[in-house]
Amino acid sequence: MTVPVGGPPLSLAATLTRIRALAQERRLDVDEILDAESLAGRTGVPVEVTAALLRGEEFADPTPEEAEETLRRRAAFLYAVSRDTHGQPYAIAEIAAAIGVDPWWVGALVSGREPPHLRHCTEFAAFFGREITFLTDTPAQAVNRALWPAVESLNYGSGDLMADLMNQYGLVSISTRGRALTRTQETLLLGMITGMLSSEVAR
Length: 203
Prior knowledge:
Blueprint: H1 12-26, H2 30-33, H3 36-43, H4 47-54, H5 64-81, H6 92-99, H7 103-110, H8 121-127, H9 133-136, H10 139-155, H11 161-169, H12 183-202
Helix pairs in contact: 1-10, 3-4, 3-10, 6-7, 10-12, 11-12
């Protein structure tokens, strides 16, 4: 499930309010959904900042210099957490060849150094299957974007999702690799699957 480049239709404060209300309605563990460490691992926003945002704290808009530093930091984070089909970090030369830049530029970007320009960042993000917003979002925007699929998943949580999936899409089973899911995790997972499958059918 992807969120359009324009972003979620709600502010972070409204998204948090919606999640808490839906979780209470579904009798789910809101702390599992609003887990700062998990969200930080998906967004590149520092854990302490993520936790503050989840508490409702607000931050001033970044200066241009701060925004550029955020972009470089997110680019380094994206490279660090991404793996190729063999489970290995992507080669700098491979990324550079794919997006048509000098390997030195990629190396500078992913190491957190300052490359001479940032005009290839859209292509860099696309190499990893991300929109440029992953690199440019403010912390609040990044956390909000990461939480929005949870809102959509919770909206699917009122019925027998597994039965709906079986009947509508002909699925036989869903593997969780031997891990037992909590009811909260199951609701979010099945809702996200439903959203992704619905998007595919709509194409």
